[in-house]
Fold this protein.
Amino acid sequence: MKFRVAVGGFGAESNSFSVESPVREPKEKTFDRNLLLENFGKKTTIGGFLEVLAKAGLDIFPTSRIFWGPTGIISRESYEHYKSELIRRLENAGKVDGILLDLHGAMVVEGYLDGEGILLKEIREALGEVPVVAVLDIHGNITDLKVNNASALIGYKTNPHVDLYERGKDAAKLLISIMKGRVDPVVSLKRLPMLGPNLGMSTWSYNPKESKNLPFARIMRRIMEIERDPRILNISAFIGFPYSDIPESVTSVLAIANADSKLAGEVADLVAEMIWESRNEFIKVRPLIPVNDAVDMAINAPEGPVILVDVGDNAGGGAPCDNTVILEALLRKGAEDAVVPLRDPEAVARAITAGVGSTIEVDVGGKIDGRFYKPIRVRACVKVLSDGKYIIRGPHHGGYMARRKVLPKEAWKRADVGKTALLEVDGIEIIVSEGKVGMEQDYYKAAGVDPSQRKIVIVKSHQAHRASFESIAKRIIEVDTPGSTSPSYKGLTFKNIIRPVFPLDPI
Ligand SMILES: [Zn+2]
């Protein structure tokens, strides 16, 4: 008898401090057969599921995959609509022996703190005790609701994330073992009173030597050694997503053992202890530099590119991408040969109306999030206009673990940031785009700038840019900018996080 496995996806990384909530339109929507067409042979989480299921000769039933991306709080109406679309497909699938889901794990919905947890609970209510294995982002918030309503949850092991495909394969293999009755997963969850810290909990670097010295990479290597024990089915160490501001948006460890709850508990305790012991090292490994100092360091550096990371305005953490603090310092200090990305649909429209070669007086940035910074008036020349659609060909966050300039085609990814305009102001190039800015070299190139040829490159990121920029960067400086993704949490008032918590409180 052939097993029948349903495959789907659902998720968001909700920043509860976002001024753009509620979010209605998902960023990615894939339904039914397209889920197979878009993922077969690709280095995605679902691509990993499909490869293993197809090799095992199983019957695959595609449902839907809905991702809102890194964003704000999801509108209740949008959430209910797409959740019922997924559950309806599962109910109509006929006999299903197992379910594989590609989740994120940090979705906050209007009125609900754990969007994906409720989805898992409703799937169980609708389909009964069918085994469900889900892959979650390493920034997933691990609630009891999620753990109690799935057979197994598997987290990414990399930050920036370059192992989606590998974890997809792990999940599918585990589901097959569960369906065949070979294993009986028992789960132990250990939550730590710790908010990230995401910057220092980096695991992967383009330069393998640097990866070796990262404290969280060291812990991940240890985890993978422990996983070689055949009694252990999976160990995931989740950073959590502090900016969701739910009681569980903290660091947590999930250990899954085969029918041995004592062993699962011991392993979860051991890994949690390793992480807790390293908490001060995570803070030290990526120090935050004040804006003026960082810009001086970049200007005075003997050679570029120097990457200035606008951590308070992380495109990958639900921030608006219109922080002008670094641009203001660059202009004030007379920096040259610098490129700054900003999301500003109004400025793009002005540039398009004026046309290439014209000079415009325009306010850039600071229009979406007025709490932390202001728009800046510039007199700019319009250099290049583009449709903002491009293909990410090199290593990137959400991609594949290869260290080479161009990845194999199955790992390429299409991106769309809306229309863009390249403006030039006194030797500083400003890329304005309608949508959130990109975090890889291809974004800059598509807008008309080769970042490897610039002295100073601003990126709006925490970790994500590292997958792409480490191959060209002479130096990367994390700049202590304000905003809804500030790693020092300055100006952010948490309402739901359990206190005391590291690093906000003395513990
Ligand atoms: Zn993540």
Observations:
- The chain has a mean pLDDT of 95.
- Residues 137-139, 161 surround zinc ion (CB under 6 Å).
- The radius of gyration is 22 Å.
- The chain has two domains: 4-283, 289-479.
